[in-house]
Amino acid sequence: MKRRSIHLLFAAATLCGAAWCAYQGWLLQRALDTNAAVVRASEKPSGENPNRATANDVAEVRLARAVALSKAGKYDAASNLFNELGHQEPLGETGRAALFDLANMYMREGIANGAGKPGTSTPLIELAKQRYRDLLRVYPDNWDARYNLERALWLRPEHPDAFDAAAQQPHETRKLKLQDVTAGDLP
Asked: What's the pTM value of the predicted model, to 2 decimals?
């Protein structure tokens, strides 16, 4: 009886291990399929409909397609995909990446139009600032978005005199008296 229970225990452990291996194999195959779809989507987009979705499209594939469209200069289609991803899963990694890439696309386009067309660069940089702020509301620890927002604020300040030295002077000064503290230079 003891020998039989040990064999049954060993068989159960073997079946659990085989099921775990099969599950891991399925996850690996799914990841390989997703990676292949991302590579296909990130290649230079052809004349096909950029917003087309297939049954196997996952968020990563749509993000790769949007990045490829952005690089190809098809900004309207890319911004539609970026916005869709940003609204579908704003808390997910793909949604945050979509918001960041959308803001970067607006920023690059605004900088490219900056010298020649100030009328079109200002709204694009304002859109970029708004997207960076949207991303920072969802994920405040994104230092890349903070840096790019600061850069956008330097390019197009919120107020015309925001970086004027005279505007940064205090409007009034007060003298404070504290107990047991004498006025003087700090060490």
From this structure: 0.64
